[in-house]
Amino acid sequence: IRDRDHTDEVKDIPEEDLNNIYRKFGLTAGEVLDDAIAGRIYGLFSFHIPVAEGNFPEAGGWWFRTVWFRDMYEGILNNYHTYRNYYGTDFLVDTFRKGFSYLSKDGRLPNKFPERKNEEISYSSADSALLALILGCKIWENEHRRDVGEETLDYLMKIADSYTKNREDIPDGAPVLKENGLLTVVPWHSWIDSRRWIRGKQVASRLSDKYVTELINEMGEDDAINYMSSPHYYLPEINALWILALDYAQKIARDLGYSDE
């Protein structure tokens, strides 16, 4: 990276913003590597959309100019200290709380905000709520904010209670907590969310043609399509987040003086 000229990466950044980045992150103006980092930090904070009297980071790019909760939380979690150094801890706490203000009765946070005025909020996501819980845990881990720790545990209990009541037979439904402690979800309610058309209906791309054909032959077309659109599936990436959230929460509970129960 030192062999490249990074002058262009910072030349169009307003001087006040650039100096603010240099100061907050201990960078030196004119240093090739520092200029490259400063340009990328400025780019990271160029993406945000005013929502609910605040700013939510959007997914980014020119094709996703809306807030996708999964992308937002992944971005914050993977750039936690960058966000904290630039905006401060209050921004992280506000984003955590504003996100949970959209918690549904079935324990989900939105997949994304609508892109058009007459559209409803999409809740087709099994991971948004889990990532939000992990953000709360990370705030506790780094800032030891007791209020955030308490709120994270409270939201976890609400979500778990909803998951135990949710049903598997609802197309586009919410996660279901099974007796083995794992979650079953709709197969496209994760970051692997692509679908393809089969017989005029959309089916998760991760389900093989062989599986789809066998299920249709066994159940009939309509029942099979409904089954494949409902929370019947153990997705490894979703249960990994669920287990991580539970592990984090147990540590918070112990730190706050609660018993394992």
Spatial extent as radius of gyration: 21 Å
Major sheet size, sense and barrel closure: 2 strands, antiparallel
Uncertain runs are: none
Strand order of the largest sheet: 1-2
Strand content: 5-15%
Number of helices: 11
The best one-word shape is globular
Q: What is the H/E string?
A: HHHEEHHHHHEEEEHHH
The number of strands is 6
Report, as a whole number of angstroms, the end-to-end distance: 51 Å
Q: What is the helical fraction, as a range of percent?
A: 40-55%
Give the rounded overall mean pLDDT.
Answer: 88
Question: How would you classify the helix and strand content by structural class?
Answer: mainly alpha
Keywords:
51% helix; 261 residues; two-stranded antiparallel ribbon; 11 helices
